[in-house]
Amino acid sequence: DQQVKQNSPSLSVQEGRISILNCDYTNSMFDYFLWYKKYPAEGPTFLISISSIKDKNEDGRFTVFLNKSAKHLSLHIVPSQPGDSAVYFCAATDTGNQFYFGTGTSLTVIP
Amino acid sequence: SQTIHQWPATLVQPVGSPLSLECTVEGTSNPNLYWYRQAAGRGLQLLFYSVGIGQISSEVPQNLSASRPQDRQFILSSKKLLLSDSGFYLCAWAGTTYEQYFGPGTRLTVT
Fold first, then answer.
1. Contact (Cβ atoms closer than 8 angstroms) between residue B6 and residue B106
2. Counting one residue from A and one from B, how many pairs have CB atoms under 8 Å apart?
3. Alpha-carbon distance A1 to B91, whole Å?
4. What pLDDT, in 10s, does the model give residues B57-91?
């Protein structure tokens, strides 16, 4: 059972525009959410996170929004750059020991 | 600073052969350690996690096993590989925060 879902396998955006990556989860016990960025043949790298006590966290060009009632979070990248082209995974945890990852969204930023 | 090592980087093994993948972490003590697998076209699947020496939790029952003989060493093993074991294996560690830090990964092809 996939507890964290990324329903868009791919997304293409023009350079300079906003990229919005979405993630849905089913387990209401999740209390911490993370986004990772992954290049081919490399391990994912941590990007940004948010606690369930917040609804927004911003770090430079990256902002994560959390809607607990809808069990939905999104990652906004503004402005998008060609170097942002990668696969983005969202992840969630309730205990801090077990993490559940989505299937990823491949972002292509077109110059 | 903390670093995580995984080896080998690539591995081609015949069906029925044994497997041993090793992961070591430097620059931190008592980390939580994780093994993930990313199969072709799929997300990250948590296989095992460990909160301490000799403590292993399995998420997916299968022909793989894990061991943690030392605080900063995590080993993934199999006695007999299956074709379905092919994939990209990732080791990760987490400290006192929820962010996970991933190794470079091992590309395993079972033929």
1. yes
2. 58
3. 22
4. 987 767 899 999 999 999 999 999 999 999 999 99
